[in-house]
Specification:
232 residues, alpha/beta, 5-stranded parallel sheet, two-stranded antiparallel sheet, 11 helices
Length: 232
């Protein structure tokens, strides 16, 4: 049994991991547990400064020396105090930006754990381009099945299909307050992130999403590879 903690940006990602991603990996004896970071008294998730994220991850790695730790943070609205954030912005390719951020993130955590390299082998950051809702655009038919009020509305479906035709893959659906995947869904549908997000993703299926979203596929492959991990 291999355990993987996934530090999530918010409740939407937490529910996605719990309801859709974790059950997918159970047959491989990989046990995924979503975690949220406390951001204020009685509140978890959202508003994640890098200092808060770093302290949480370091604490988790030191506290549990047999589990792996990764993240599920959106690139959209990522706090600009993450390592090498400004340098990443100079890159034109979205995936190059994400890779640069993840490498800098891993490097900073590793540097802080240099007293024991086994810690760093158990951490692999994931930053989702552009946000969790990008994954939902893998299957428009499943999105419109996500709520009884959407099912028979042809105009809603056509509006969503028009968006997917603009982009090479769902992860490229872009990065502004007006055009991010979640804001597009909210403007076209009465989309509620926590209520609809995981439900739609589960309906689409992890394999289907992996086939459309290459950075998410990379995360899933890294997790799958842990099924071969042997503890000393």
């Amino acid at each position: 049994m291999t355990r993987i903690f996934i530090v999530c940006e918010g409740q939407t990602e937490e529910k996605f991991v719990k309801d859709a991603l974790a059950p997918f990996f159970h047959p491989l004896f990989l046990y995924l547990t979503p975690l949220l970071i406390s951001t204020s008294k009685g509140h978890k998730g959202g508003g994640l400064t890098y200092e808060r994220v770093k302290n949480f991850i370091l604490s988790k790695l030191r506290e549990d020396k047999t589990a792996f730790v990764t993240t599920f943070f959106d690139y959209y609205a990522l706090n600009n105090d993450f390592p090498s954030f400004n340098e990443a912005q100079s890159k034109n390719d979205l995936y190059a930006k994400i890779t640069h951020l993840e490498e800098a993130f891993l490097g900073d955590i590793s540097q802080s754990l240099e007293e024991d390299l086994t810690y760093t082998k158990r951490f692999f950051p994931h930053i989702q381009p552009h946000e969790f809702e990008s994954l939902l655009f893998s299957d428009i038919d499943k999105i419109v099945l996500g709520d009884a009020e959407w099912i028979d509305n042809i105009k809603l479906k056509e509006a969503l299909q028009a968006i997917t035709k603009e982009f090479e893959n769902p992860e490229l659906i872009n990065n502004s307050k007006e055009t991010s995947p979640s804001h597009r869904l909210e403007s076209i549908l009465n989309y509620k992130k926590v209520f609809h997000g995981a439900k739609i993703a589960k309906s689409i299926g992890i394999e289907n999403i992996r086939s459309k979203c290459k950075h998410f596929q990379k995360l899933c492959q890294t997790i799958s590879n842990l099924s071969e991990f042997k503890y000393d």
